[in-house]
């Protein structure tokens, strides 16, 4: 009889594919407490990949701890959990921070005997030592305080008596046994933590290998993480059939791949040329139904090209009817690993909503690629700063903006807002638009574009915040190399540090998961022509 394979327990760095397992663990470890969103856990992993650990037992995630680097002045001052963790996304991470800050620790109760918490603390401590940080800090829950409240003089007294061994608190006791020392109490740290009455113990472990009298001198190395971006300024033209359209698209994919681009992006609604070979002029709803028939074939072709040419394709956008019967404007992202992702347009323009009955999507999230997380904002969405901020909180460093504008005013709205998104989020933003005209296809009469690749405005970047841009209104491909490491430097040591300098104590974005799609009423009919409206 073969011997049974011994059970295995592994502690390793968390990766994006662990997100679902981490959420399952946390819901089990903290029943009755609102769980993270998938975007928050993705943000923790993407913003500081080294600092997140999972414990895996027989293929199942049974432990998770999340961390970020924080400047000493912030870590030692009074704070709450939401402020210091960037609302749970880990977006307060400072690459030059001299302390490791604990965001989360969760262990599956069913496997407590495996000393999972201790193993995770050891992994976190080893990281602090390897990075030569001053130590580790976090706010520790005090779940016994509410019960003992009537018998102590306050949270400070309760903490002192637990430390002296006069009272027992399972969480604080565990942290004390792992070498952490309380240096005070944090008020309203987790207001919803009723067992702790909202208080937390301000816990510290000091790295014995670092001289506390020596001033920290962390600098972000000027590394190179080069990514080549290609944006296609696509000519709207009549085609004889589906194959002819695919041939036009594949030509540009081939060109971008020949230049060894990592990404190629097409414009919003670039697939509307598929209506040009219809024998009769279609009503808007007939056009949507016909485009829905083209959806699966065009996604299959884009995925084939991504694999064949070894390039990540941002497939502009394609209007289509989805399973619930609503009409959506969707960007299909086909990666060179064979995976296919989609991003709905969140804000249809008034013209889109009225003529085509397009409704806004409900979620915007990062897409994991072989060169890191990216985001997609379709045209008008770039004019809503909350969306780009959510993507960057989740770790996006490149945001792609496929757009379709009929005139210069519409184009400039998208362009100016995209440049603002690059500056305020310290990220790269890539625009791709249509040019020319498409006679016989409603809403695509004329096009105006000047596609471009935009950067933050600081020393490592192009003088005007423009890595490259196309000439106006001609069909062309624009290519530029960008260095993702420059973003890391700018966020930590730049002249301004928009992400780090946010007033987390004053404002934050609350995202309602699974929101309701809004439709447009007859009274809100837009003025003017049936043009897309252009952002």
TrEMBL record:
Region (Disordered): 515-535
Database matches in Gene3D superfamilies: 3.40.630.30, Carbon-nitrogen hydrolase (3.60.110.10)
Transmembrane segments: none
GO molecular function: acyltransferase activity, transferring groups other than amino-acyl groups
Matches recorded under Pfam families: Acetyltransf_1 (PF00583), CN_hydrolase (PF00795)
Start-end of Basic and acidic residues biased regions: 515-526
Start and end residues of each CN hydrolase domain: 227-484
PROSITE patterns in alphabetical order: CN_HYDROLASE (PS50263), GNAT (PS51186)
Domain N-acetyltransferase: 9-208
UniProt cross-references to InterPro entries, sorted A to Z: Acyl_CoA_acyltransferase, C-N_Hydrolase, C-N_Hydrolase_sf, GNAT_dom
Protein name according to UniProt: GNAT family N-acetyltransferase
